[in-house]
What does this fold into?
Amino acid sequence: MRRAIEADRDQQFQAFMDRATQRLYRVACLLTGDAGEAEELTQHTLVRTYAAWERLDGGDPYAYARRILVNLHSDWWRRRRRRERPMPQVPERVAAGPDPADAALDRASLTRALAHLSRRERAVIVCRYYLDLTEQQTAAELGVAVGTVKSACSRALRKLRVDPELRPIAHHQEAQ
Amino acid sequence: MFTTEDLRRALAEAAAPRTTGLTFADVKKATVRRRYRTFLAGIAVALAPVLAAGGAVALAPAATGPSPDAKSTVSPRVLTSARYSAFPADPSFPVRTNTLVATGLAFGDHEELVLWYDDPINGVRGGLYDERTARLRTLAWAGIRGEGFGTIGELDDRNGGILDYGVVGGDDTRVTVKAGGRTAEATTAPVPGVPGHTMFWIRRGGVLAGTTAEPNPATPDAVFTAYSSGGRKLAESNSSGIQRADTIVNRDDVSRRIGDPIDTGVMMADGSQLQLWFDGDDHTALLRASTAPDRILTTLSRPPSDPGGFYHAVFTVDGAAGGRKVKVCIYIGDGVRVQMGGEGVEQRGSRAWSAYPRLKVAWAKTTDAAVSAVAFDAADTMVAATDFR
It folds into this structure.
């Protein structure tokens, strides 16, 4: 009986992972700016979500996992951001077709610009403009006041608007 | 970046190509490991009072909350002669070496715990300062927070005690430490130049946090409580916020040279040739450069994790001739040589590490411009490439 319940839970969780893993990983990439750390953060998030799966009955598991991810990142980042690790697979290969250099440059520029923001500012930017959460939802996600979200967002946008790392993106947009 | 719509689009475009190979099996395995660690931590917590009874050192009795007129806040003694040499990993965050605060707490025979404010992102950091040589070895960051505790650093002082340091939000904040059933008051000082924050430190007995890279280190037995100057309770630490801070220092002290040094042939501004080498212990290898031997470029496990591919980072060694820098990267796999490239590259090379020949160290004398790297096999076919992003 217990085995049957566990098998059912595993099946549900696998289906959840199919839907949510890549989405969570992309949020983690924007928060950490590092593929390896993002993968580790995503895995820890999923482990915690899996452990809490039975308590989530009827709730929104993606929202729960996303909140864990954002808060885990807040707790972890100072102690983990200096660590590097080998990539789990052979990384980018030269691809045929359009030169991927421009896209890579944009991606790297944005990653570096986000890295110039404080932890909270980065989390607010990702919640507001990548996850499209409202200020109230962002505040709930981060466990802070709405006013804190507003001020952090305003500061972050001010920094991004003058960040020299984002000039290449502006140039590309001008050229298009 | 012009509008928030541009930002939305840029974020979406930056995230879209990212994919992970995480599977349910990975998550399940990690869950089992986590349960096992929790089980061990539970055993350790159960044993903590027994260990603490035998290990109490200098924990002075104190009231459970500080009285408003108690005075443990000090005017910081500032050190100005320290030479910061270890881990200047990110030159965009220079250490303010003129604001090192001496705690008066000894580490080993010759070093003293010092604290300083690093930058608005990383906050307060701990270090070990040797007055004889003016050498400073860095410990973990304690962070900085408007409210509550940042990360509390904990280390064995090698004299039979435990040192803790950290930072807490608020001016004139008092901090007590309860460990092994006794309570003591930590020494506090304002964070130099950063109003609204208080740094603290204490030497105590009890049980030292375990050494682990996991987010919840095992068995910290201390509970830190912050009070306002009026005696109001402001915050209490939790176990996940206490972190062992001396792991790399301990490894550093027992490290030995591993494998042969790698001569790069790159001339440095001081007339020397840049040499790279690994040292470490049976479990860890630290990559170092001859121009800044106290600095660790990166840390590898031994034997290195060998999934095949580039180590996802590029390390910078300053001080090459002509005002240039040397960018260094690591590749592990079937490739026999690695070539770094990019705008401004003047000289480059790669060499296998004799202790683990599948690991190649590659270097390029260049400017601040971004670099990439490609690995080739014996037939000169490209087997891996990265732009380190």
About this structure: Chain A has two domains: 1-89, 98-176.
